[in-house]
Specification:
The protein is of the alpha/beta class and about 450 residues long. It is built from 17 helices and 15 strands.
């Protein structure tokens, strides 16, 4: 029976004052009854506008119809025709600005909770399905994938389903890329990431860790000595940016990448951890994106009083609304219209951040209001930890060791949008290595695009 409720089924979650002291997953997931009830909110629109908002083109109405029928395994089969990582996407994809933004139910109320349903379906499959996916017949062709983040895994998964012999090379000691080192356990449990990777391995994907392409092995060697016919570069954007302000080299000042890697990959929050990280009393996080929210919420769980400093207002925060809401619920403070200009220290350690007070200008031709300094107005925020979360760039190692690979001035690899092809024959690229830091689902979409391009290249070579 159709559910004409104007609001989504709420997501069960840990209470804020409980979850801000542990690293367990915040959102607890729908029950079967909640999932079926939410699925019945879908109108199964003829023109399927939600599909157009999905970077990997999941057949959204079709999988939701299966959920409404109680056929959860059938729903999983529909999703995995297009997505290799549904349990991950259901948790971290910004559905509110993509598929759900186009949902017709959102015109007069809240859209269908597409992301929550995707997560439910993937989790149900993991808990109830005991059969390994059928391994495709080999087609006799070999492809190398550099990086085991979302773009690399999506590319590898699509190629494996077509019978390619795929080897993924990962620089770190475990696979997953940003899914493993960047996104906290309370948003994306690492056991979920590992299960998704195990599913790709069951398809025949091989993963080699502790291999730094450009240093351990070159791209030329992948072709000439290892016999790969094509290479996909999905090495991400792991090079942190700083503001280059006085005092930025003091102890206690981290890039968000370093801080999150220590927390997520090296488990610095555990009492028995050997990772050298100071549990701060007062933390300042600079930035307003999802990574800034992740870093702030991790610091809170270490027992710190946390303030996020952002040079614009709350209305301009680029982070997902849900992540901002969770941060506020957990007691994290925001200092809007503030821009750091100096890091102050005592005995070599950060002790405070001096901020220039800002205001927004009148709208320019594009309608955007820029932050401009309020002359002579500053404020100082005490802290013993400062985390810089103002963006990242692609690592320059691959471009510096690979001849004929065209890159942008800022470091991104130049690749065709329609195919992922770079300036070198047989070499494709996608995800953050091409665009700079973006979302998991956009990186996956780029990986799928490149997989199709590689398949076309090899089959028609």
């Amino acid at each position: 029976m159709p559910n004409m409720s104007m609001t989504k089924n709420p997501m069960p979650a840990q209470e804020p004052d409980v979850r801000n002291k542990n690293f367990n997953e915040v959102a607890l997931g729908y029950t079967e009854e909640q999932a079926i009830d939410e699925a019945n909110r879908c109108l199964n629109c003829k023109h399927r506008p939600c599909v157009g908002g999905c970077p990997v083109q999941i057949e959204i109405p079709a999988f939701i119809a299966k959920v409404a029928e109680g056929d959860f395994e059938g729903a999983y089969e529909v999703i995995t025709r297009s997505s290799s990582l549904p349990a991950i996407c259901g948790r971290v994809c910004p559905q509110e600005s993509q598929c759900e933004q186009r949902c017709v139910r959102g015109i007069k109320g809240e859209p269908v909770a597409i992301g929550r349903l995707e997560r439910f379906v993937a989790d149900w499959h993991m808990a109830n399905s005991k059969e390994a996916p059928a391994k495709p017949e080999p087609n006799g062709h070999k492809v190398a994938v550099i990086g085991s983040g979302p773009s690399g895994l999506a590319c590898a998964g699509d190629l494996a389903k077509k019978g390619y012999d795929v080897t993924v090379y990962e620089a770190l000691h475990i696979a997953g890329g940003v899914l493993a080192y960047g996104i906290p356990e309370f948003r994306l449990p690492k056991a979920i990431v590992q299960k998704e990777i195990d599913g790709l391995k069951a398809l025949g994907v091989k993963i080699e860790t502790n291999v730094v392409i450009g240093k351990t092995i070159s791209i030329d060697e992948l072709f000439d000595e290892f016999g790969f016919e094509s290479v996909f570069i999905g090495s991400g954007a792991g090079l942190p940016r700083f503001m280059n302000i006085p005092g930025e080299n003091l102890n206690g000042v981290y890039s968000a990448n370093e801080f999150l890697t220590r927390i997520n990959l090296m488990k610095a929050y555990r009492e028995d951890s050997k990772t050298p990280i100071k549990h701060p009393k007062k933390t300042v996080v600079v930035g307003g994106g999802n990574v800034a929210m992740d870093a702030a919420r991790c610091a809170k769980r270490l027992g710190s009083d946390v303030t996020i400093v952002y040079r614009r207002t709350k209305a301009e925060l680029p982070a997902r609304a849900e992540e901002v809401e969770h941060a506020e619920e957990e007691g994290i403070k925001f200092a809007f219209l503030n821009n750091p200009v100096e890091v102050l220290g005592e005995e070599g350690w950060v002790s405070a951040v001096k901020c220039q007070v800002m205001e927004l200008s009148e709208p320019d031709e594009s309608g955007r209001r820029k932050p401009v300094p309020v002359e002579g107005e500053f404020q100082t925020i005490e802290c013993d930890c400062m985390i810089m979360s103002i963006g990242t760039s692609p690592n320059p190692l691959i471009k510096s060791t690979t001849e004929g690979l065209e890159t942008q001035k800022w470091g991104g690899i130049v690749a065709e949008e329609a195919t992922g092809l770079t300036s070198r024959e047989g070499v494709y690229a996608g995800g953050d290595a091409v665009t700079g830091a973006a979302t998991v689902i956009l990186a996956m979409g780029a990986g799928k695009t490149a997989a199709a391009g590689i398949d076309d290249y090899i089959q028609n070579k």
